Amino acid sequence: MHWAHDMLQPGVACVLDVETTGLGPADRVIEVAAVDAYDGSVLIDTLVHPGANITIPAGATRVHGITNSMVADARPWSTVLPEVLAAVGGRTLLAYNSSFDRRMAVGHARSLGLDPGRLQSWQSWQCLMKRPFHVVGHYHPPPALRSAPCPRGRGRGPGPSPVLAGAAAAHPSCDAVLTGNRRGEPSGHNDVRRGRTGEGRCTCT
Taking the model in full, what pTM does it have? Predict the structure, then answer.
């Protein structure tokens, strides 16, 4: 309860998510998004070109819905990474299975000879699967999260994108209270994670 309250103060934390070409060390980031944990405002949300001669396997597309044609004209990680660092600032980075997001973001940076900045530090991250929660009472997500379309019309259907859904569940409005129980995880976001981690299990150590 106290941890959740602290994370939901202005400027303290953001919910960050990356989508990738796969799970291995040679795989690359193809989308990154972050929303402020306090008010749900979108800090950054962009597709990323994975690099020359790197393609998105069909199996990965089935998980996140991103195709090779969608990232063909996207900017490279070398351009996007500084924007990510500037957007999140000094906020704590909240992520489902944060070890995955950290590993992929940092690995992609290092493959290009880039400094991943504070994304590299474990102290910058908090894993939401280690601090599960659910909302008690009547939860009313902010209007921006209730109505936010899936970015770029990716075909995931109506409603917010997975990272926005994750942020909505982390945002206590009206009489909502966060407590320690995973049952309230947003199904949209967790569907994406389940495809990566085998049953939504946290791989952070």
Answer: 0.72
